[in-house]
Amino acid sequence: MVDEDALLPVGDELPEVLLDLAVPHEDINELVGIARRLEGDPEASGLLEESVRVLVRDIGDVGFQPEMPPVPEGLGGAAAVRRLFPVLVLLAALPHTRAYHDERAVPVAIARRTLADLGRHLALHRRRYGNAGLVDARWLWPHFRGELYQLGRLQFQRARLGKRTGEAVRAAGLPLGPGDACLSIHIPDFRGPLTPQACDASLALARDFFALHYPEETYRVAVCHSWLLDPQLQKYLPEESNIVRFQRRFRTPYRETEADDRLPVFLVFGDPDLPVEALLQRTAVERAVAGHLLAGEHWYRGHGWFEL
After folding, report:
1. Each residue of 99-130: pLDDT tens digit?
2. 118 contacts 90 by C-beta, under 8 angstroms
3. What letter would DSSP give residue 6?
4. Cβ neighbours of residue 240 under 8 Å, at least 6 residues apart?
5. Which one of 36, 68, 100, 279 has the lowest number of neighbouring Cβ atoms within 10 Å?
6. Residue 56 in 3-state DSSP?
7. β-pairing, 181-186 with 154-160?
8. Is 81 exposed, middle or buried (0-12, 13-18, 19+ CB in 10 A)?
9. pTM (whole model) above 0.85
């Protein structure tokens, strides 16, 4: 492993690292400036070291939820420092992540595309707030801890079956249950259509990838927990739409009873706080989300599984 005291890339190296992580060009100068601003700041350096230690502890373990130390309001003397500090933590953790990928012989291209999701999340923040930052840094922890990989169109996270899904898998006759290994599928945006061909290719990549790089782990089922699995979408989208065909891959272990309208508004329109009346209705999905809410209905997170 790498030295736990390693901090940020310095000098001309940092912009190159940021570009490799698909960080938007308009965010690079600000991040470089903040990194330089914090050089020699003992409070910031100490917090950065502690945050990295927490993040990479037991790297590669499944389901670990780090409890990151809080970032003081006045750190570095600027609000932007606090806003971008989670990005600096991920950058400082990068040598640990790369060392773990090397230990698992993860191909360089797969590692690069996986960690480039940092840039996508920065783009999501800018779309919502107009500046650089992360809406929720926790979404990126699995990438930097060796739990999640971008394999083609989809992301696959090493995970465990929950109680209700595990019981449904067992009831279907598989020798699995709650707590057993599964692959959790994530559907990132900004990666083109969710075509059946792209999904098939991703699943083929995942089968080969985990068999080769995690041979001690056996994955019999894939799961997905997403509003895109809400069956109500079938009322608005044609039967041969990519989303409906994606839904058909899954068995439904249980139905969600708690509405979650903010999530589809955030993922489709970029801001969960937008008033329903202001939602654009240009695409079929936009019309479905907005029209459903305008009719006084609600969206729910869907849950699904299928045998690999």
Report:
1. 999 999 999 999 999 999 999 999 999 999 99
2. yes
3. -
4. none
5. 36
6. helix
7. antiparallel
8. buried
9. yes
